[in-house]
Write a structure and sequence with these properties.
The structure holds two protein chains of two kinds. By secondary structure, chain A is α/β, with parallel strands linked by helices. Chain A has helices spanning 25-33, 55-58, 76-83, 89-98, 114-122, 124-127, 144-159; strands at residues 13-18, 44-45, 48-49, 61-64, 132-136, 163-167, 178-181. Chain A folds into two domains: 1-60 and 131-184, 3-Layer(aba) Sandwich (Rossmann fold), CATH 3.40.50; 70-129. Chain B: It comes from Marinomonas pontica.
Chain lengths: 184, 220
């Protein structure tokens, strides 16, 4: 899987990974993030070989996979504070309002719909200060408004010299993302 | 995510899943209560057997909990987030185990006085029983976590966990029950307690690392 793939990622760009189902898009993100280990090849971050110890990269990393990493028994605010304990109350309010979750701040995640859960998971993009975002199907289950909001957030991040690597089957033309694709 | 926010979240989730702990404690009470009813309610039988009965019931209750200790984290993607958090995975594992141990063993300790009275455990041996539980159960959690992490991705992993970890539980049970029996007979029991402490410390040194490796392999 992903044999022969070589990608150089530069700060300040959004990269969309394309490929048919089973091509290894999610696996590629997992390997970069450190969830999986590569069978072959190397990963370098800021000139440093991080293939065997991903911690230098993980300091700057925000990874959202298919499983969102949300605990059903936490409330929406508790979830955000779990990942970003230093978030200010006013920032939390602003982000929840932007994402349409303000009325659910004290609601347990298990009571939310799939799209709302996706919004809760994505809320980390607004509160955590990480340069490298690895997002696996971030637009899945989102409604039109949320898609626009996420596109805007990605653009903001990229313009602030952030780097976004994402997979999606949806057309997100407004992002003007560089595309990386390969066949299985 | 920080170590502190992780710890607080684990306490919070455990509190909201208190029915799981309640089930384990209820199971413990039921098993202990069935012995006098099912075998012999005479003090001559129950008093010498009380340590063994209480310990076997406690081990079974802990087994109920330990099998699923990482299941929810695996399902909701939290284990992936542990791996990419940049935090030290063995320490995250250890923090989770501390929370789980406190959440399960403390309620068991609270019902011990009543149940030990029911089984005619001499009052002089009660504190030895408490000491065996405090010193011995950490190793049960630490050993159990390795099995739970290895089988977290399996749908029907409960039996496999038991087969994997029960052989390692036996020495703990033997030393714990021996300590209680020795105290009942007026024999020295500190050696047994020291062995329990040693096993817990050895597990503490080895288990978080092995569990972390197992977690990584299972998520892979």
């Amino acid at each position: 899987m992903c044999a022969g793939l070589s990608v150089q990622l530069v700060a300040g760009e959004a990269i969309r990974i394309l490929g048919v189902n089973g091509a290894g898009k999610s696996s590629l993100l997992k390997v970069i993030a450190g969830v999986m280990s590569p069978l072959k090849g190397e990963i370098h971050y800021l000139g440093q070989d991080v293939t065997h110890d991903r911690r230098p990269l993980q300091q700057d990393l925000l990874y959202l996979g298919h499983s969102l990493g949300i605990k059903n028994l936490l409330t929406v605010s508790e979830h955000i504070r779990h990942y970003c304990p230093s978030v200010l109350p006013e920032t939390l309010q602003t982000v929840l309002t932007q994402l349409g979750l303000i009325d659910y701040a004290d609601t347990q995640v298990k009571a939310l719909s799939a799209g709302q859960k996706q919004r809760v998971a994505l809320s980390r993009l607004w509160v955590e200060n990480k340069a490298l975002w690895l997002l696996d199907e971030p637009f899945a289950t989102l409604d039109v408004n949320a898609v626009a909001l996420l596109e805007l957030r990605i653009k903001q991040h990229v313009s602030a010299d952030g780097l976004v690597l994402f997979t999606t089957h949806q057309e997100v033309l407004s992002l003007n993302a560089r595309e990386v694709s390969w066949l299985v | 995510m920080t170590y502190f926010s992780f710890l607080m979240t684990e306490f919070c989730v455990l509190w909201r899943r208190k029915h799981d702990v309640f089930n384990a404690v209820l199971f413990f009470i039921i098993v202990v209560s069935l012995f006098p009813l099912g075998i012999d309610p005479a003090p001559e039988f129950l008093a010498p057997a009380s340590g063994g009965i209480l310990w076997c019931a406690a081990v079974l209750s802990i087994l109920m909990v330990i099998e699923g200790i990482f299941k929810e984290d695996y399902r909701d993607g939290s284990l992936e987030q542990w791996l990419v958090s940049g935090l030290y995975l063995p320490l995250l594992v250890l923090l989770k185990l501390i929370v789980q141990w406190a959440g399960v063993v403390m309620p068991l300790l609270m019902v011990m006085p009543l149940l030990s009275q029911m089984l005619y455990l001499p009052s002089g041996s009660f504190w030895v029983l408490i000491m065996t539980v405090v010193l011995g159960t950490p190793s049960l959690f630490l050993i159990g976590a390795i099995g739970a992490a290895l089988t977290v991705s399996l749908r029907q992993g409960a039996m496999l966990v038991m087969l994997l970890i029960l052989p390692f539980y036996l020495p703990v049970i033997i030393f714990a029950v021996s300590a209680i029996r020795a105290s009942q007979e007026g024999a020295p029991y500190f050696g047994f307690l020291a062995m329990l402490l040693a096993m817990s410390l050895l597990s503490l040194v080895i288990s978080p690392f092995m569990t972390a490796v197992a977690v990584k392999a299972s998520v892979n």
